[in-house]
User: What shape does this take?
Amino acid sequence: MKQKIAVYIASPYGIGDKVQNVKNSLQVADQLLGLGFLPFCPLLSHYWHALSYKSWATWIEIDKQWVLRCDALLRLPGESRGADIEWAFALENGIPAFLDIDDLITWGKEQNHCSTEWENYNPWKDENRITGEPDGTTSK
Assistant: This one.
């Protein structure tokens, strides 16, 4: 099995509709997965934060640690102090950072890590959906 390139998705969160911002980030994560990358979507912490409050500074420190563990960063468009900090942190630490998904794809191919097995993957097709329960049974 070829190791996939882990991509940190830096995107707007606090400005505008937070739930829509999470959805936008997850749609990009789905696209990256389909292209053979291993996306990391820090905006999923939206749900963790709803369960257990953390300060903004704490989230930024957690996010920086995840940036260090990823192979690349993709910055989505839109105003975001946090995403700007993550972008600068990636560059300061020698982590390739991209503003355009096409540039990320080109770089990924140069790294010989982009998988072709996912080229035609569509997570919304019925045959690709996970329908079973964790114990192997199916729910009706």
The helical segments are 18-34, 45-51, 56-69, 81-92, 101-110. DSSP finds five helices and four strands in the chain. The chain has one domain: 6-128. The longest helix spans residues 18-34.
